[in-house]
What we know:
Mean pLDDT: 84
Membrane topology: Multi-pass membrane protein
Protein name: Putative transport protein HsrA
Structural class: mainly alpha
InterPro entries: MFS, MFS_dom, MFS_trans_sf
Keywords: Membrane, Transmembrane, Transmembrane helix, Transport
Distance between the termini: 38 Å
CATH topology of the largest domain: Growth Hormone, Chain: A
Shape: globular
Strand content: under 5%
CATH superfamily of the largest domain: MFS general substrate transporter like domains
Number of strands: 0
CATH architecture of the largest domain: Up-down Bundle
Subcellular location: Cell membrane
Largest sheet: none
Helix content: over 70%
Number of domains: 2
Number of helices: 20
Amino acid sequence: MKQQNQWLLLMSTSIVSFMSTIDASIVNIAVPKMSRDLHVPNNQAEWVVSVYLVSICVLLIFFGRLSDQIGRVRIFQTGTLIFVTGSLFCGLSLNLPMILGARLLQALGASMTMATNFGIITDIFPPHRHGIALGVNSSFVQVGNIAGPGIGGLILTWLNWHYIFYINVPIGIIAYLLGHHFFPRTPRSTRKIQVDVPGFSTYAGAVISFFVMIFWGQMIGFGDWRILSLLVVTIGLFAAFFVIEQRVAAPLINLKIFHNLGFTFGILSAMLVYACGYFNNVIMPFYLQDRLLLSSAIAGLILMAVPLLNIFSAPTGGYIADHIGAEKVSFYALFIFLIPEVIFLSIQPSWSIWWLIIGLALFGTANGAFQNNPMIMGNASPEFQGIAGSIAALGRNFGMTIGLSLATSLLYFGISRQAGRRVTTYPDAHPDWFVAGMHFAYRFALGMIILAIILLAVVLYRRAAKEKRVM
């Protein structure tokens, strides 16, 4: 394939990656307006966010396995069209059931594209360029993950929330046409499609049970017997899933992929980083608009510091990863994360706004330099590239969803601790309580980064020890 066509296809897959990822976070800032326009409580409007994320987590592994059987490009292109259609229906929605149905359609398309984009890129580019190619794609994915509140704030300054979804339609059509023209034509597979129904059923049940437990627990408390019962159900279903996968002839996930410590710890460290990114998505819009009393436009511009720096650092990190290894680059990037996390858990409203901008810029730099995709895909053998890509995307979405839940729960727990009573909304009469809750939440974010550092330190130590034995 011509080098020019490789980069055009990379842009096509990356644009779709950006859209499907940003739609997980861009809605957060629009929830209050959607709540008013759709005449539903704020907690019900939040379903528009959670339904999308949970559905993707349920479907990702299925489409990763299916793409290994019938072709990644076919799944990716079909998913792009479904995602665009879902986006159009989201924009046209006039009530909560309509938009939830449209979000399910969006999630179906997004899961098809997320499950296949990494595998497509590693197929298109030669191995010595995987780092830079996946780094470029990673910049789109990570910008999509963290730019939602900023871009959403800018759109809502001049337009209504429907345009958050409408904007996907022309961009998605262009990306589809690019792919249709340049993707290599592959013959239809004549292999019989094998679907691991028992494995998928137990996996889907476990994921749904897990997220119902997380979201419901935020409302009624995690010590409630119903939440503890869901925890037992979740553990039981995951245990059943692992037993099934070891016994069926064509498992949904070949568990041998996790025997590679670099792959497993790469997934876990990526989940931790994405979870930390969601702390910014959840907490920073409140801090900027409700505590500092900035407009949506100004708040959006300040939050854009993260994606702007991310755009430059991700391909740079990918280029360096091609020379020294993705694990080393990611390990060094994690130390950069420590600086903004310390700023966020210390900052006061009396501080200059530049401290916040510097913290967000450093977060964006570290987020881009963290080479999770090359690290994960590089540790998966060729026969696992399809499922590895979907597991990487699953780890990202799990991290985002867990980050959403953790950030919200820790924020309000910190506020409640300061107030001496349970608080579940922004404390308008006591804005300093919010700052205390924010600091409390970011202490845990700092802890997650430290845990990620330990995981990658183990990987690098074991690799160095192995190379020393070979020598």
